[in-house]
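Recall the central idea of this unit: under ordinary conditions, the amino acid sequence of a chain determines the structure it adopts. In this exercise we apply that idea directly, starting from the sequence alone.
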Amino acid sequence: MQLYIGNKNYSSWSMRPWVLLTQFEIPFEEKMLRFDGFEPDSRFKQTITKLSPTGRVPLLVDDGFAVWDTLAIAEYAADKFADRALWPRDRLQRARARSLCAEMHAGFGALRGACPMNIEASLPEVGAKVLAEQAAVQADLQRLVSMWTDALNQSGGPFLFGEFSIPDAYFAPVVARLRTYALPVPPSIGAYMERVWASAGVSAWVRDALAEKEFLAFEEPYRKSR
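Accordingly, the structure predicted from this sequence is:
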């Protein structure tokens, strides 16, 4: 399998399937398509549009068969490697896990827009300003804390549904955002975030992201080129 991704420091969507496959030791070949812009004539767009009908990453290609969209990739991997329990094994817990992923997939637009993923940055002052001025971001943060707390209380941890599963990979970019912008969470949620950050798949992604050392101005609404 080949997984096409964008820059690890910035590409939150790419992070999810890469972390998932890495965490579960599912072999794949990484295909990095570095961002140079998203206009039709950019190198990135010219390359990815030949491979995916959406012209976006991530994209999984398995023996010539293309799967796009993070949820579709997660489901494909879960079906192909059913013995590895990428979703929780319990039927009701699988349904709840899918519900959380779907909510993340379709929602939290305010948090995404105000706090774009930027792993190597530290922007606590931006986070404080955004949280003070944008009620929608406050609501998104409250919902995240609520859903994570409920899941952890029901499962007993250490991850949302006990062992690491698709929802933890799916929320890994959110953990990155909360860290970058120092958004306040209760101690129990902070401890969960640290466990996610230390997991094999996430820590490997973060290590690579920090090694990129690329500054892309169009991905940097809060900083200027150094």
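The radius of gyration is 17 Å.
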